[in-house]
Design goal:
Largest sheet of chain B: 8 strands, mixed
Helix content of chain C: 25-40%
Number of helices of chain B: 10
CATH architecture of the largest domain in chain C: 3-Layer(aba) Sandwich
Helix content of chain B: 25-40%
CATH topology of the largest domain in chain C: Rossmann fold
CATH superfamily of the largest domain in chain C: P-loop containing nucleotide triphosphate hydrolases
Oligomer: heterotrimer
Radius of gyration of chain C: 21 Å
Structural class of chain C: alpha/beta
Chain lengths: 273, 329, 325
């Protein structure tokens, strides 16, 4: 098997971010919220503060580590919600067809017509800022691609012999969808889900930047960037490092998604052959 | 044979599909199956032949309960089956199907064992019994039981078809629908599967409904044959009646269409293609392509299936005239 | 006999996987005379289709001509440049496929696709070419050709589409028509008409036909001579009548004995079909020696070790088998 650069690099970047978040309590030098000391405000990167200190004298390195927890939690969980919703709607619409398919397709098209970030913004404006609201806002607004993909894959599978055979053997519809169809459409769905995680990390940053996501003082990369707005010329490191963290995470997820597509998506495999 | 109840009796079965329509105008009906009467005796292989679109596949799906009939009844051992959906599991133990394509008919992510085990569990077979049933079934279809934990891609086309047959038989059904069971297989493999199917029929007392366009296979395997055209049976009888004494011009044309390896002379006299099923021809539906058609064939009412000899029935106005010399109609 | 139209000599076609060459077709030789109908019969993977693709210069990596010559009208098609091949294709050699839908342009009316051949190869104007396209449709017995010419491929039935393909293939009066399973996707009744059409048109125009099929009966019915291929080798080449009556190679004999021939049961009762043991080998795992030896009922000791050479048969034709060597 040939070396798949994007899979390995993407996987390594993503693993690094996961490790950073998971090991934050041990890797961090200071508490990300409490250890503020105005004496250290806007100190440039150095031996004590590896990434420098922010406007309130907090260690940016420690805050970026803890920020990974929030970004990843939001990215992974919201995308999981999206995937479950998308697969459930898409697979059932493709399998049953009829009026249910019309309803789901209409809903999907509506979702696709609304910019998902704007939709999430609207939901966040109604709910109070916070992690749960973020999960709801991002988890409910980005399932349309998964839904379309699941529906199309289900349509192409449902008349295959083994799905028909399952019906003839007396399987119920739910069992057929879960045991016969889902395992065979999962590959491309994982790909879309991984790529979507990158989008969710960005969306979280954007919402937090706008003050609608995670509220300061809790360290989210987006809220850190938001805080650093005024210091971008005087203390660029305050914004550079959270920005870099977002960049690395999203790049890693996109590369990983591309790499997974090469192995999981039979169509791209056929192209390569 | 007539005294015992047939395993399957199909009475006046019709399946109509709506087609087209949409926003403007009502959809028109395709009469895929339009009043079919058939019986299947115990231990019998019934061959269903006809061009694509003649309704043979729809008929098979109706027997399997995947296609609710518009009209008519399907009786299993004299008892009418329950409505579609409710009795999926009960019907699964009556009729099963072997598919044409051994590649798309097996779930690539399930081992042979999973493929055979899941239906047994679903139908409440005790766990202790399952392994024995799977091993026995694999032996029946000529596969070593040790292969049970392999996945479909590890098998050849012929072996996959054996797995497909095992899946169809695992619930011990009485009727098996064979949908072009060998036409997707390599030519040198076909004999293995044909022999296996005939052996299994004897050994397990199965009844087959076989759909095939390969008339050589149909003649070899069938006890009785039904020829369908545009949703209706045009001729049915013992295999000898159909292949040695075909009466309907369509049956004759189908047989004449098979290239004869020993004779380069052309015998085909039928021309054209199957008409649009949305607008079937008046009278005898075959008349536009029939080399024997007369003015009367165009007129309504359409000819009925008439018995011309014991068990041999033909739907043709000119059946009597078309009898071969030396045979009485 | 004078110079044949086509002479394939010791053709080898390589399938290259990871730098390793597998001989998908090895040492295949046959000739086709002007106006002759020659059949290649065999199972999937036997190399019959890739042989045809080599003849028309359509082999693409990982497949390539490894050795041998393809002599056709003074050219060696195995060596010829892409431009010369393009000129020959369509004008002198053309091909029809199993599924015409994939070979036709879905966005162009079929009349125009036929007309294109006259414009490309004969330098006709479009107006003139469209008129000749309607004539071409009439010649392949498409009813109402002037109306059908305006139809798009999806509006036609499978049989009609194959007729259109034949019209395109024969538009420029090629010397050789390659027909790769042209009727496999069609109903038997439509198949009979298409075969008759190919037979009539090739006879009327003196076009040679290379007919490829897995159906031995069809090939024997259509062709004067037949080549039987197995696992990349031409194992037997005979007059069509002789192949069925007196097959020389154990593979051919086994195949014929394994087929439920129409009428056999009525004549002789239901005999158990003779099975050929084993499975068709894949290109990457062709056995050593005679490639049929693991499945052969008449295997000799040397069959597994030595590759048999071609032997001329007393009754005419050739066979590649130690039983005859």
């Amino acid at each position: 098997m040939k070396f798949r650069a994007n899979l390995w690099i993407g996987g390594a970047l993503f693993a690094t971010v996961v490790a950073a978040g998971a090991l934050a309590p041990w890797l961090a030098h200071t508490d990300p919220v409490m250890d503020a000391n105005l004496m250290n405000a806007e100190l440039p990167p150095g031996a004590e503060f590896w990434f420098g200190a922010d406007g309130q004298g907090r260690d940016i390195y420690s805050r970026v580590l803890y920020g990974a927890r929030i970004s990843l939690t939001v990215g992974v969980l919201s995308q999981l919600i999206n995937t479950v919703i998308g697969v459930a709607l898409g697979m059932s619409a493709g399998y049953w067809g009829g009026w249910w398919d019309d309803v789901v397709s209409g809903l999907t098209n509506m979702m696709l017509a609304i910019p998902s970030l704007v939709f999430a913004l609207a939901i966040m404006a109604i709910l109070s800022p916070g992690l749960t609201s973020l999960l709801i806002a991002l988890g409910l607004t980005n399932w349309s691609y998964t839904c379309r993909l699941s529906r199309a894959s289900t349509l192409s599978l449902k008349n295959l012999g083994y799905v028909q055979a399952a019906r003839i053997l007396g399987y119920g519809d739910l069992r057929i969808m879960l045991t016969q169809i889902l395992p065979n459409i999962l590959g491309p769905i994982i790909v879309i889900g991984t790529l979507g995680m990158g989008g969710a990390v960005l969306a979280e940053a954007a919402l937090s930047f706008l003050g609608l996501g995670i509220r300061p003082p809790f360290p989210s990369w987006g809220s850190m960037l938001s805080d650093a707005r005024d210091q971008i010329t005087t203390a660029p490191w305050v914004s550079v490092f959270p920005g870099l963290a977002i960049f690395v995470t999203v790049l890693g997820l996109n590369l990983l998604g591309d790499g997974l597509r090469d192995i999981l998506d039979p169509q791209s495999e056929a192209r390569a052959r | 044979m007539a005294e015992s109840t047939p395993i399957l009796r199909i009475e006046d079965l019709a399946v109509h599909f709506p087609q087209g329509g949409g926003l403007f105008g009502a959809p028109r009906m395709v009469r895929a199956v339009d009043g079919v009467d058939l019986t299947l005796a115990r231990g019998e292989c019934l061959g269903l032949v006809g061009e694509s679109g003649c309704g043979k596949s729809t008929l098979a799906l109706a027997v399997l309960g995947l296609q609710p009939p518009t009209r008519g009844r399907i009786l299993v051992e004299g008892v009418e089956g329950a409505a579609a959906g409710a009795a999926r599991k009960a019907r699964a133990r009556v009729a099963q199907m072997v598919f044409q394509d051994p590649y798309s008919s097996l779930n690539p992510r399930q081992s042979v064992r999973r493929t055979l085990e899941a239906p047994l569990r679903l139908h409440g077979v005790a766990g202790s019994e399952i392994d024995d049933r799977i091993a026995a079934m694999l032996k029946h279809v000529g596969l070593r039981p040790e292969l049970a934990d392999r996945y479909p891609h590890e098998f050849s086309g012929g072996q996959r078809q054996r797995i497909g047959i095992a899946r169809a038989l695992i619930l011990e059904p009485r009727v098996v629908v064979l949908d072009e069971p060998v036409s997707a297989l390599d030519v040198s493999i076909r004999a293995q599967i044909i022999n296996l199917l005939l052996d299994l029929k004897e050994r397990l007392g199965l009844s087959y409904i076989m759909i095939s366009h390969d008339l050589g296979v149909v003649e070899h395997m069938s006890d009785r044959v039904a020829v369908m055209y545009l949703g209706r049976i045009v001729e049915t009888g013992d295999w000898r009646d159909i292949f040695a004494r075909p009466r309907h011009p369509y049956t004759r044309a189908l047989i004449a269409a098979i290239p004869d390896p020993f004779e380069k002379k052309r015998t085909m006299r039928m021309t054209g293609e199957v008409p649009n099923p949305l607008a079937p021809p008046s009278g005898c539906r075959f008349h536009p392509r029939c080399p024997e058609a007369r003015e009367a064939c165009r007129a309504e009412p359409a000819p009925q299936l008439e018995t011309i000899a014991a068990g041999h029935r033909v739907r043709c106005l000119r059946a009597a005239e078309l009898a071969p010399a030396g045979e009485t109609a | 006999m004078s110079e044949p139209l086509l002479a394939v000599e010791n053709l080898r076609i390589d399938l290259t996987i990871g730098g390793v060459h597998h001989a998908a077709v090895k040492d295949v030789s046959f000739t086709i005379g002007r106006g002759e109908t020659f059949g290649l019969v065999g199972e999937s993977g036997c190399g019959k289709s890739v042989t045809a693709l080599a003849l028309i210069g359509l082999l693409r990596p990982p497949l390539s001509v490894g050795a041998g010559a393809i002599r056709f009208k003074g050219h060696d098609l195995a060596q010829i440049g892409a431009d010369d091949m393009r000129r020959l294709r369509g004008a002198s050699v053309s091909m029809i496929f199993q599924e015409p839908m994939t070979a036709l342009n879905p966005l162009s009316p079929v009349g125009r696709q036929i007309a294109e051949m006259f414009v490309l190869h004969k330098g006709a104007t479009w107006v003139e070419a469209e008129k000749r396209a309607v004539e071409a449709l009439a010649s392949v017995r498409v009813p109402a050709p002037d109306r059908r010419a305006k139809d798009y491929p999806h509006q036609l039935s499978g049989g009609m589409r194959q007729r259109v393909m034949i019209a395109i293939a024969l538009a420029c009066g090629p010397d050789l028509l390659l027909a790769d399973e042209p009727t496999t996707a069609l109903d038997v009744t439509v198949q009979a008409e298409i075969l008759e059409l190919i037979r009539d048109l090739s006879a009327a125009r003196g076009t040679a036909v290379l007919m490829i099929s897995h159906d031995l009966g069809l090939i024997a019915n259509m062709c004067a001579r037949v080549g039987v291929m197995y696992a990349g080798r031409l194992v037997e080449e005979r007059e069509a009548e002789d192949v069925f009556r007196d097959p020389a190679h154990p593979y051919t004999a086994g195949l014929i004995a394994s087929l439920p021939l129409l009428g056999a049961r009525a004549r002789h009762g239901r005999a158990r079909l003779q099975e050929i043991e084993g499975v068709v080998p894949s290109v990457t795992a062709f056995p050593a020696g005679c490639r049929f030896n693991p499945r052969c009922a008449e295997r000799l000791e040397r069959c597994a070790a030595d590759d048999p050479a071609e032997t001329a048969l007393a009754a005419g034709g050739r066979v590649r088998c130690w039983r005859h060597g």
